[in-house]
Amino acid sequence: MDIDVSKLAYTFSSKPLLIGGRAMEYYGLRKSGADIDFVISSEDHNRLAEIYPNNIKDLYGDIGICEFEFEIWNRIATFNYDYLKEGAIEEDEYLVVSLERLLFLKALAMKVPKYLKDLELVVEMILKNAYNMEI
CA 57, CA 20: separation in Å to the nearest integer? Predict the structure, then answer.
């Protein structure tokens, strides 16, 4: 999966953490949409907010920087980068959220039908991996 973060013209101090649809696609669960969602460190988020001050949105206190196809968050539902990156898979330019943390994120949003379906897909993969079986 090719994600070009260089278009942001920013060097991250900590690798951004891929979440959302692209993480689902990374694990082969479903195709992603056009946007690319990351959670980043507080330090990186503060610096990017200075670079892109007109591209900031507030979603219940989670602050997103939306530039190009990226939505770059300081946290998701109060859970920050340090918490969400636990168990992440390291790629060259970014980290990919672990299946367990992806499960957690999808559970937080499961009242939305799309995310409930995602939650079911993640659970299915975790069970398949744990028991080496088809669900």
Answer: 17
Give Cβ neighbours of residue 131 (< 8 Å, ≥ 6 apart): none
**Rounded CA gap, 58 and 17, in Å?**
19
Pure H helices in 3-98: 20-26, 42-51, 81-84
Q: Each residue of 5-22: pLDDT tens digit?
A: 999 999 999 999 999 999
Of 27, 1, 3, 30, the closest CA to residue 115 belongs to 30
- Half-sphere exposure (Cβ direction) of 11: Cα atoms closer than 13 Å: 0
The one-letter code for the residue type at 87 is: G
SS3 71: strand
Matching residue, tokens 């939306």: 66
Tell me the C-alpha distance between 31 and 24, whole Å: 7
**Global pTM value:** 0.93
Side chain identity at residue 23, one-letter code: A
Round the CA-based radius of gyration of the chain to a whole number and report it. 15
